[in-house]
Amino acid sequence: MSILVETFPSVGIGGHFQNAFIGRVTDLDVTTDRDSALARLAQFHEQAWDDLGFSGMAFITAEQVHGDKVAIVGETSCSPVPGVDALITNRPNVCLGIYVADCCAVYAVDTEHECIGLAHSGKQGTALGVVPAMLRKMETAYGTDPARVIIQLSPCIRPPLYEVDFAAEIVRQCQAMGVGEIVDCGDCTGQNLDRYYSYRMEKGQTGRMLALLAILGVRSVD
Questions:
Q1: How do residues 87-105 score in pLDDT, each as one tens digit?
Q2: Which of 148, 154, 179, 189 suits a disulfide with 198, CB 3.0-4.6 Å?
Q3: Measured distance CA(115)–CA(157) in Å, rounded
Q4: Per the omega criterion (within 30 degrees of 0), is the bond before 82 cis?
Q5: pLDDT tens digit string along 183-215?
Q6: CA gap 18, 180 in Å, rounded
Q7: How far apart are CA 148 and CA 162, in angstroms?
Q8: Distance CA 3, CA 40 (A)
Q9: CA distances in angstroms from 13 to 61, 144, 148, 189, 214, listed in the order given
């Protein structure tokens, strides 16, 4: 079996930030419910975690309820954080994690204030504005100026395989907030089942990709 992993150069700036998107584990049977699939994927995700240099970090995930709530997290935060779909932190060596299988994982990096955010944004979360909510939370908590933020969109399902182009709406929302740089990988999960899991195309019986984002080293500002 092999693990398909990619990284996004846009949010790996200057060696201060580490990111990854862990895709399909080839030949692993995950035709089951979410919890069982994640249990089968756990050892492979842990291996990728180690290989990518996230070892020793606090790993914080969100409950992911398809809403617009955002949590500020640190080394001692509970995981998964209940009732939220986005996480932000300015703590080094805290790895944010979001699971997706057609929804979009949205990475946010503020290099000026050395803080990050990671959101789960599908049809419902996008309609509620979870990514703008994440950016506003970063602004309130850390002084983030959206004009200095880099946004990266992960693979997600897109038309014509899905009736709503929520990736395009996420981009529009970020543009409306004045985000300085927006990068959409453009990949459709449903059209690339050799690389990604797709909840819709695999009728809910499938695995999950894992998005990871962390700040490395010591912060230059408090």
A1: 999 999 999 999 999 999 9
A2: 189
A3: 28
A4: no
A5: 999 999 999 999 999 999 999 999 999 999 999
A6: 20
A7: 32
A8: 13
A9: 23, 17, 13, 26, 12
Q: How far is CA 79 from CA 117, 144, 219, in A?
A: 16, 25, 23
Q: How far apart are CA 52 and CA 210, in angstroms?
A: 13
Q: Which of 66, 63, 62, 210 is nearest to 129 (CA)?
A: 66
- Tokens 């985000």 correspond to 179
Supply 123's token pair: 């049809």
Residue-level length of the chain: 222
**Nearest-angstrom CA–CA distance, 118 and 17:** 13
pTM (2 decimals)?
A: 0.95
* Contact (Cβ atoms closer than 8 angstroms) between residue 96 and residue 79: no
Q: Which of 5, 100, 10 is nearest to 54 (CA)?
A: 5
At the second CATH level, the architecture of 3-215 is 4-Layer Sandwich (3.60)
What is the C-alpha R_g of the chain?
16
Rounded mean pLDDT, 14-19? 86
Tokens encoding 10 = 């846009």
Q: Does the pLDDT value for residue 166 go beyond 90?
A: yes
